[in-house]
User: Fold this.
Amino acid sequence: MKFGGTSVGTPQRMKEVVKLISDADQKIVVLSAMSGTTNQLYEISDYLYKKNPVGANENINILEEKYYKHVDELYTTEEYKEKTRQFLKQEFDYIRSFTKGIFTMFEEKIIVGQGEILSTNMVTNYLLEQGYNAALLPALDFMRTDKNSEPDLEYIREKLKITLAEMPNKDIYITQGFICRNAYGEVDNLQRGGSDYSASLIGAAIEASEIQIWTDIDGMHNNDPRYVENTSPVQTLSFEEASELAYFGAKILHPTCVQPAKFAGIPVKLLNTMDPTAPGTVISNKTQRGSIKAVAAKDNITAINITSSRMLLAYGFLRKVFEIFETYKTSIDMVTTSEVGVSVSIDNTSNLSQILNELKKLGTVSVDVDMCIICVVGDLDWHNIGFESLATETMKDVPVRMISYGGSNHNISFLVAAADKKKALQSLSNHLFKNN
Assistant:
């Protein structure tokens, strides 16, 4: 079970989480930092990068005071209030120690990981105070990445097995999300998906019956509720469909964080701590045939079109185009080609001017900015006659710059102007989900 920052954002929320995890099933619970804490730790780090220890200390004091206030709200016995105060003093003295020396990205990674250390210790102390058979599993004892900064799955499995054996027969194990060690033993963090990634890796390592991701909304919705009224949670998704939705804008999940669960064949449930009885969304290796599941949108897209008569009947042209994006470490979202042209979309424009300079050596280049990718996800296998025409017919009143279909069996994507995003999302909802 994994609980995000909002789910443990206040002492009251922590108590609600404990109610959810205190049934009879044995479990490992992954916690994020309390909401807002990681941002404040990044702010402290920023002051230290700027060689301003006074500003850093002022922010540390503010954060420390906030946590001391939580103690009286969370615990009822003086024993656990004092135990937690002592822990908090050690933690914040440790954070202060970084204001006295050289500060680099290595120190920053240690500081920003303290939020999870704080939340897990506080919740474990509360569980023990309430008489639960619980233990704290330090993530730094078993969570590690390899030299390519990818999770070291075999190491995680072996170390977790040893760590659990040292604390046998507990009903609830609490551990940190996000933080890990790298291949050299230094404190690091899981960049992609953070705590969700931790939960997926742990679930795969222990061969869990299921992995539960608890957030503050009831599953993955069939459209963006910020722009479209009357959206509803999607009850079932395949891992591929969930990844497509996450990549193209569904913020509830990072597109790669459930890969370990997918390969281990473990279902992932997206559940709502604010409404625990809601069914949420179940993600598994099963595909529901013949249905369109959901729509998502990805903002801040730039489209680039390269036209060249040299492309006609020539080989190697596309390789040259893609090598330019590779050189500048810029990933491509959508691609469409014709006999004499290729259009691509990107969301990272940090090296756009250099990319355009290189592309102009190959042909005539034009750029469209402030674009948006609208992604329709479901069982869009080409044998399902009429599915792609259903989606395109829905977009008949929206100007479409590019369409991508066939690269995946699970999505059809439209590139539109950002100004037309809401209209496109609403139209797709009206036509695709009107019977939901």
Remarks:
- The first strand starts at residue 2 and ends at 3.
- The chain has a mean pLDDT of 92.
- The chain has 14 helices and 16 strands.
- The radius of gyration is 24 Å.
